[in-house]
Amino acid sequence: DAGITQSPRHKVTETGTPVTLRCHQTENHRYMYWYRQDPGHGLRLIHYSYGVKDTDKGEVSDGYSVSRSKTEDFLLTLESATSSQTSVYFCAISESGGIPNQPQHFGDGTRLSIL
Amino acid sequence: AQSVAQPEDQVNVAEGNPLTVKCTYSVSGNPYLFWYVQYPNRGLQFLLKYITGDNLVKGSYGFEAEFNKSQTSFHLKKPSALVSDSALYFCAVRPRSGGYNKLIFGAGTRLAVHP
Questions:
Q1: Which residues from chain A sit within 8 angstroms of residue B51, using beta carbons?
Q2: A109 touches chain B (CB under 8 A)
Q3: Cβ atoms A74, A54 nearer than 8 A
Q4: Residue ranges in chain B assigned as alpha helix (H)
Q5: Which of A64, B42, B63, B64 yields a CA-CA distance of 20 to 30 A from B88?
Q6: What is the pLDDT of residue B98?
């Protein structure tokens, strides 16, 4: 398995509170991604990073921000959590963004419940 | 809009019988195609990919997939199902344009293999 650790694995919090999820990789891969998984939607890309301090938005980025200060860490922040952000969040990594022979590898997810 | 369809929410099959999990896509050009599997409380695991070449692609755990360009389909198959194959399966498509390994996921198909 690819060396990807997501923390926390489970979190319950209240509406309006800030939440930060962490993704840590030991593979030294350049690209990192945050997805959310919801029933009936598969996985949808929130944000991605193509290097330290280089990030961009995905298809469902509203309400989320990210930061990448080191190659190995990619943080996802919900500035003010809402119930619609209750989901399972997955981090993924890939060695390159443009070479399809290198598939994305996924962490085990963070289950986030916002009450 | 680009999309991936997995028309069956669930597929039921008896152990030892062949299985097929269907995937069709609406993505311009000749995209790259992937299958991932997800076991409970785990992240997605890469199964196989189609980049170019033979229309029948072999992957992990005895799975294979058949690419059909005219039907824009990429169906996952296995000649003899195992109970341990029971899991959630995702088809994903990567457009050839774009440099950040953008994946478009289907909603997923739950495979249930009965003894």
A1: 100-101
A2: yes
A3: no
A4: none
A5: A64
A6: 66
